[in-house]
Specification:
about 200 residues, mainly beta, five-stranded antiparallel sheet, four-stranded antiparallel sheet, globular
Length: about 200
């Protein structure tokens, strides 16, 4: 079943509108000044005081006319200067996604998509965003350059649906992973969605 068909199927089962405008949907949430060492993080729980660049939601659910299929999850860790760091210093961490009262992704390990060796889940990010050379002079370097540390992205093999008006959250569990206490952590959910359209859908 394609992501479009699955979203329409779930919306139909729940009695949600199925005539909304199709769109690419990205949801993101930021934890500002996280604990320096912690075994648990919860994204899409706190929205108070966050700016438009730190989240694009004001509650942990979509509007009554909106729904979404999650295709990938991305984690980013920035220090106080805005430099992207290894998320949780590449320690062993797992991610779970809870939609309503259901755990739809359970304890998925994320540390395998890191470092310059090892095989990522999707075989698309074979270097995990790492470089063996950390000093790059852009005036003399002839090949394409990338940032030394890249965000941690996981492509999902199944279509995870967030229906309208259903609370959701993303949890990261570990054993005292280190984070930048003066920085910020970002979780991004990317995929396909439907948004409200007052006219005919097209």
């Amino acid at each position: 079943m394609s992501q479009v068909s699955k979203l329409s199927y779930v919306d139909g089962k729940l009695g949600a509108p199925t005539s909304g405008q199709q769109t690419t949907r990205i949801l993101f949430n930021t934890i500002v000044n996280p604990p320096a060492n912690t075994s648990g993080l919860i994204f899409f729980k706190n929205f108070q005081g966050l700016t438009n660049g730190q989240t694009n939601l004001n509650q942990n659910k979509l509007d009554s006319m909106e729904s979404m299929v999650i295709k990938s999850i991305t984690f980013m860790q920035f220090n106080a200067n805005g430099v992207c760091r290894e998320f949780g210093a590449n320690t062993q961490q797992t991610v779970s996604i809870i939609v309503g009262n259901q755990t739809v992704v359970k304890n998925l390990p994320i540390q395998f998509n890191s470092g310059s060796t090892g095989q990522p889940f999707d075989r698309l990010h074979e270097n995990g965003g790492a470089r063996t050379d950390t000093t790059v002079d852009i005036t003399t370097f002839t090949d394409g350059t990338i940032q030394v540390v890249q965000p941690r992205e996981i492509r999902l093999l199944t279509d995870i649906v967030i229906p309208p008006q259903v609370a959701f959250e993303v949890r990261v569990d570990s054993t005292l992973s280190p984070y930048d206490a003066t920085g910020s952590l970002v979780c991004v959910l990317s995929g396909y969605g439907k948004i409200f359209s007052a006219g005919n859908s097209f």
